[in-house]
Amino acid sequence: MEQTMNQTAVVIAPEELLKHWQGHRDLTRRAIVAFPEKEFFEFSIGGMRPFSDMVMELLGIAAPGLREIVEGNTSDLVEHFEHGGKKENILNAWDAATEQINELFAQIPVERFHEHINLFGKYEGSIWSTIFYFIDNEIHHRGQGYVYLRALGIEPPFFWDRP
């Protein structure tokens, strides 16, 4: 991996970015909790995937992607894992990934954020743009989950209610 720019100006500190991201992760976790068990795995609208599949995608990207950034070892993108059809198992995986994100993010020096990477051997960009993608992708899928919750007559968590 090569560094493309040496940037010194900082608009937001890495710790603030992590707090922002974890606020979104907390909100997504509350959306997962709001789903009834069966509908979490089966409900869909208009040919979209069930929310459980979207959440597994998020789990396959965030912590593994950060691990690849920190360790420099390219890995395959794995978007599915055995969960036994239980929402509790996915929530446990979510919580474990949250801790991994905290640990891994802290290992990325601010000087590396403009470094060019090729995540999972196929997604090129800077470290900062990759992290923004992780956040944007989560917001996108959570929005789909919110549509599902509303279609099921369930009020989703307020999008602005983040720690």
Task: Give a verbal description of the structure.
A hairpin with a 3-residue loop joins β1 and β2. The protein has a two-stranded antiparallel sheet with strand order 1-2. With 163 residues, it is mainly alpha-helical. The chain has helices at 14-34, 37-42, 51-71, 87-105, 127-151, and strands at 116-119, 123-126. The longest helix has 25 residues, at 127-151. α1 packs antiparallel against α4, α3 (51-71) runs parallel beside α4 (87-105) and α3 (51-71) runs antiparallel to α5. Helices cover 56% and strands 5% of the residues. It has five helices and two strands. The protein is globular, with a radius of gyration of 16 Å.
What is the element layout, followed by pairings?
Layout: H1 14-34, H2 37-42, H3 51-71, H4 87-105, E1 116-119, E2 123-126, H5 127-151
Antiparallel strand pairs: 1-2
Helix pairs in contact: 1-4, 1-5, 3-4, 3-5
